[in-house]
Amino acid sequence: QEQLVESGGGLVRPGGSLRLSCVVSGLYLGYYDVGWFRQAPGKEHEGVSCISSNEDDIYYADSVRGRFAISRDDAKKTVYLQMTSLKPEDTAVYYCAATRARPWDPEFVERLCRRASTEDYDYWGQGTQVTVSS
């Protein structure tokens, strides 16, 4: 059974760091583009960062560019989101999601990440809470 499981969330002070992990099982990660998304109370679902299956295409939302870094280790079936210089506005539930890659479409990763639609991704994790507060 296909499953994505996030971990690494928690409570951190402003300026602090966290690393989120998304462990994938039941599917071959190498065939999939993967993204991190977040949703804060009262706010829309937001695409934070997404990475293509071959790592050629990476997208960051303007709000996190320069502070967050996405990476993947297909051998470990894991996708990471390193978050630094955290701000209170980063507080949200963070989700990872996977969709079948389209390496022939160089704009695919960014287009889907910006749209942040649950319908665009085949599999979703259950989410991990990140709270940034002093």
In N-to-C order, the SSE pattern is: EEEEEEEEEHEE
Instruction: Find the structural class using helix and strand composition.
Output: mainly beta
Specify the overall morphology. Answer: globular
Count the beta strands.
11
Q: Measured on Cα atoms, how large is the radius of gyration?
A: 14 Å
Oligomeric state as shown = single chain
Q: Strand fraction band? A: over 45%
Low-confidence stretches: none
Present the secondary structure layout.
Blueprint: E1 3-7, E2 10-12, E3 18-25, E4 32-39, E5 46-51, E6 58-60, E7 68-73, E8 78-83, E9 92-100, H1 108-115, E10 123-124, E11 128-132
Parallel strand pairs: 2-11
Antiparallel strand pairs: 1-3, 3-8, 4-5, 4-9, 5-6, 7-8, 9-10, 9-11
What does this structure look like?
This protein is mainly β. The chain is built from 1 helix and 11 strands. It has one helix at residues 108-115, and strands at residues 3-7, 10-12, 18-25, 32-39, 46-51, 58-60, 68-73, 78-83, 92-100, 123-124, 128-132. Strand 4 and strand 5 form a beta hairpin. It is globular and about 45 Å long.
